[in-house]
Amino acid sequence: MNTKPERSNVNDDFILYPLYKVVGVFSDDETVKAVVAELHRKNFTSDEVESFCGLDGAKRIDFDGTKHGVWTTFVRDIQHLGPDQSFLEKYEKDLKNGNCLIMVRAASKERKDTATKILHGYTDDRVNYFGLLLIEEV
Predict the structure, then answer these.
(1) For residue 55, which phi and psi values (nearest 5 degrees)?
(2) Cβ contacts of residue 3 below 8 Å, gap of 6+?
(3) Is this prediction's pTM over 0.70?
(4) Tens-digit pLDDT profile for the chain (138 aa)?
(5) DSSP states along 58-83
């Protein structure tokens, strides 16, 4: 499997928290390509869709924050103590096991529902929405 992240808007920004994003885990990069294509057909832009695959994806997300400096290491330490801990650990493990992660920005209920439906169509894994002070399985 190709562990290179399939991502339309590749940059090295630190992902502090997936605010207003629907997040799902997928088994391979071919599935990711299909999901991304369907999201684009439903008018999600490249800036709204991010994907990360395998070890390269785990490195880009930087689960311990060490690649982005002292401040981000501190933030990740705090996240590992709070309710985000189980999500961080699961997503890190998923990526290190060769799976892929898709994050879809969905600031409205309609966009959230559309993204959720699409992601559920390609995975049996949980799909989660990260809102302001809210994490819910959707």
Answers:
(1) -65, -35
(2) 53, 54, 55, 56, 57, 98
(3) yes
(4) 443 334 433 345 545 567 799 999 999 989 999 999 999 999 999 999 999 999 998 888 776 555 655 555 545 545 545 555 667 789 889 999 999 999 999 989 999 999 999 999 999 999 999 887 677 878
(5) HHHHTTT-GGG-HHHHHHHHHHTTST
